[in-house]
Amino acid sequence: MFFTRSLAIAAAVGAASAQLKTCSNSNNTLSCHSSSKSPTCCFSYPGGALLQTQFWDTDPATGPSDSWTIHGLWPDNCDGTYQANCDSSRAYTNITAILKEQGRTQLLSYMDKYWVDINGDNEQFWEHEWSKHGTCVNTIDPSCYTNYQPQEEVGDYFQKVVDLFKTLDSYTALSSAGITPDDSKTYDLSDIEDALAKIHGGQKPYVGCESGALNQLYYFYNIGGNAITGQYKAAAPLEKSNCPSSGIKYTPKSGN
């Protein structure tokens, strides 16, 4: 339904030739730092902030016991609000097939391990994240590509989310600060934020809790250029943590 041209051809030929338009000002104009109100292929607007978001699911547990898992990459309007489901014509329901046809099998294998749905339906989860958030990243609109191949931006989006996630090893950062999953220990919010800021350019992420236990992390960025090849600069969170200041639980994963 969504394959207007052969993705096998896109993988073999288009992947090498299709690319995002060059952004000469990528190091000068950061999103959320300009008076411009016009989105371009080199300027993110209104979703000027991008959030790499992570889960810590424990019941049922998802992903490895020594790693957080991917939630997504979300554009935010620089003020805590956001757009969603921006292009119904690109609300694809075949993410796995698209990635396979683009030859991104290693990416897909990684996603199956670290970008996992709590109910076991990874494909549906990825479809949701792409449709709700990915279609709202204006700098990867099809018009921003030269020699565009259908769904090229889909593979680029998922690859970028994974690449960012790999630079944000939250489990190891917390563990290095003595913050480890435990059924009885509790931790202070400031210690958690300080530990995570060390892997995020000195900027603390949003730390989310559920029933007083660690549950989610949002790492905020401003972007110079497009969302794939542009400059990512760590930014302060646009919302306050919902966790208590102390007594925070970090529940071990169980039932993997």
From TrEMBL:
Entry protein name: ribonuclease T2
GO biological process, one term: RNA catabolic process
Source taxonomy: Eukaryota, Fungi, Dikarya, Ascomycota, Pezizomycotina
Pfam families, A to Z: Ribonuclease_T2 (PF00445)
Top-tier EC class: lyase
Keyword field: Disulfide bond, Endonuclease, Glycoprotein, Hydrolase, Lyase, Nuclease, Signal
Superkingdom to which the source organism belongs: Eukaryota
Signal peptide residues on this chain, from the entry's feature table: 1-18
InterPro entries: Ribonuclease_T2_eukaryotic, RNase_T2-like, RNase_T2-like_sf, RNase_T2_His_AS_1, RNase_T2_His_AS_2
Molecular function GO terms recorded: hydrolase activity; ribonuclease T2 activity; RNA binding
Native organism: Penicillium chermesinum
Residues the record marks as active site: 71, 129, 133
EC id: 4.6.1.19
Any single Gene Ontology cellular-component annotation: extracellular region
Family: Belongs to the RNase T2 family.
